[in-house]
Amino acid sequence: MRRSLLLLTIAALATAGCAATGGGGADEGRTPVAPWSAGSEPAGPDAVRTPSPSAPDATPTPSPTPTQSPTPTPSATLPGGGTTILPDHRLVGFAGGRSPAFGRLSVDGLDAAAAQIDAIAAEYDGDGRTILPVFELITVIAHGSPAADGLYRTHEPDEVIAAYLAAARRHGALLLLNVQPGRADFLAEVTRLEPWLREPDVGLALDPEWAVGPNEVPGDVYGSTTGAELDSVAAYLSALVAEHGLPEKVMVFHQVHSSVVEDEAALLPHPGVVTIKSVDGIGSRADKERTWTTLMSTKPPHVAPGFKLFFEEDVAQGPLMTPAEVLGLAPTPDYVLYE
Asked: Disordered: where is this region (predicted)?
């Protein structure tokens, strides 16, 4: 993400087994990029950056628990009809949020972004799949300073989520609510979003890079989760689908480095939940393909593959991978996300 970052030192990267951005390591991923900052471009591997004091939400405060459900509620089908996602669809979308640093899916440009998604997605439909557009909204935002409850994250208010959902519905897209939990637990943050997750066209994206321990600060270190924690969220979504007669729910988890998700085998299949592992590394085509190969090697068989590209950070390392090059990856991605 185009945000100011607090890079790990070269020694710390070596300890973690991860090459610096652009270094070409087999398990390469990007260093944590502080999500609270308005975002200058990454510098060299020895650079150290700190959160901008003028960045939005520099002194975070917790948001209230959601009190409204989105309206109007469509029929219990996916955008375009039907209730199942794979193998008939391929998901292609943008990430973003209220800060321009979060990506091109900015709050004041949602219709224009939808048109861009459609133009890019047209290059991903050559294998007969139906493209399902995706808006991935950064909804729970990790911070480098504690909120009032000390959990280093804040929540987007209901009216922001409602605006993104309304735009997604105008364009026949899924809305995925991205969760960067800070020191909170994923399941606690997800259950808080239940009024939205009861909607047939709303799913989840989990960002464990920003899930840190009780004595850690987001952006100082890579966060992490476990397959068991991911499984608890998938089980919760499966129960929602069954209880409310919903179509399949998407649950993406983004992974930038092998250390970010431990014991993936504990993530089990659950009825009504399409789980996607999205490889989230910045770099040249060769670097991204090496990261892809490494992280796909631990993907459980029932988890679908996803791939993330960065319009600016990737281009700083070489040409942006084309749709044909992305579709040439093995396995072929079922979800392609641009930021």
From this structure: 19-83
Q: What are the beta bridge partners of residue 69?
A: none
Token pair recorded at residue 265: 């085998």
Reading the block at residue 201, the tokens are 């066209």
Question: pTM here?
Answer: 0.82
Amino acid at 261: V
Nearest CA to 314 out of 6, 29, 5, 113 is that of 29
**Cα dihedral value 258, 221, 253, 96, nearest 10:** -130
pLDDT in tens, 130-157: 999 999 999 999 999 998 999 999 999 9
Residues 6+ apart with CB under 8 A from 115: none
In the chain the domains, ranked by start, together with CATH numbers, are 74-338 (3.20.20)
Distances (CA, A) of 78 to 32, 307, 308: 33, 22, 23
Q: Do the beta carbons of residue 24 and residue 237 sit within 8 Å?
A: no
For 238, the enclosing helix (H) or strand (E) is helix 227-244
Length of the chain: 339
